[in-house]
Write a structure and sequence with these properties.
- This protein is mainly beta.
- It has one domain: SoxY domain (Immunoglobulin-like).
- It contains two helices and 18 strands.
- The protein has helices at about 5-10, 30-40, and strands spanning about 15, 20, 45, 50-55, 55-60, 65-70, 75-85, 90-95, 100-110, 115-125, 130-135, 160-170, 170-180, 195-200, 205-215, 220-225, 235-240, 245-249.
- The strands form two sheets. Strands 1, 2, 3, 5, 7, 8, 10, 11, 14, 15, 17 and 18 form a twelve-stranded mixed beta sheet that branches. Strands 4-6-9-16-13-12 form a six-stranded antiparallel beta sheet, with no helix packed on it.
- The longest helix is centred in the first third of the chain and has 10 residues, at about 5-10.
Length: about 250
């Protein structure tokens, strides 16, 4: 076998759900750009064990549910980065799960047009494991006027958290929604105003998991996380104007 044939085989080989590092399954024109900009050009593999679930078509491009599940990677998960390739503001969140929180996040985002949705999971060996999904959309979700700001009294509800905790085997799932316009600065005359930090803490104030949020997250953002136990928790939030909010879950 000559060297050229061997190289071709190496490029297309797939073993245990891992794809060759240069074979984007969605063939996005933005993959190389985001690999360099968001993942610092670090080693990666496309990995079927990282599940990204989203509707095939976004009926409401301002509220697109995305479910990211990296539990198949076990205890090796260090960080999760999520983004939408073709959004004007692509980044969605950075999630750092602690020992008591599973690497699983459900959230709602905006999409401006049909786009791949990515979740890159960094493991302890320094490799990013990338999962992908494609969402079709009529468009305009990032530049549409705010629905929240059109509702009377939205300022009085700012930062209110509605949610609860639900048993799941030996652990529990947290599901919540936060009242906030999540302005992304793309609508004329309205500057950026969005939740950019979140921490899940235990009763003593120890951080169990942290989230850095970006303006691609939808208005009145919803969020789901899973804990290994059923300990008391509190959610702390801060927006880019310095407002802080906290709620017991």
């Amino acid at each position: 076998m000559n060297m050229r044939i061997l190289l071709v085989l190496l490029l297309v080989i797939r073993v245990d759900g891992l794809f060759a590092a240069d074979a984007d399954p969605l063939q996005s024109v933005m993959w190389d750009y985001h690999h360099k900009g968001l993942l610092d050009g670090e080693p990666y593999v496309f990995d079927e064990r990282v599940k990204v679930q989203a509707p095939p078509f976004a009926e409401d491009a301002r509220q697109v549910p995305v479910h990211i599940d990296a539990r198949a990677l076990g205890e090796d998960v260090v960080r999760i980065e999520a983004w939408a390739d073709l959004n004007p503001i692509p980044r969605v969140f950075t999630f750092v799960p602690g020992e008591q929180v599973l690497p699983l996040v459900a959230i709602r985002i905006r999409v401006e047009q049909a786009t791949p949705i990515r979740a890159a999971v960094l493991t302890r060996d320094g490799v990013w494991h990338v999962g992908s999904a494609k969402v079709d959309a009529a468009g305009g979700g990032c530049t549409a006027p705010s629905v929240v700001r059109a509702q009377p009294g939205w300022e009085d509800r700012l930062g209110q958290v509605i949610g609860g905790r639900f048993p799941r085997g030996e652990g529990s799932r947290l599901r919540l929604q936060v009242s906030h316009p999540m302005d992304n600065g793309l609508v004329g005359g309205i500057p950026e105003f969005f939740l950019n930090q979140a921490e899940l803490r235990d009763a003593e104030g120890t951080v169990l998991a942290s989230l850095e949020l970006y303006p691609a997250v939808s208005e009145n953002p919803s969020l789901s996380l899973e804990l290994k136990g059923r300990q008391d928790t509190r959610l702390w939030l801060r927006d880019n104007n310095g407002n802080e909010f906290e709620a017991a879950l």
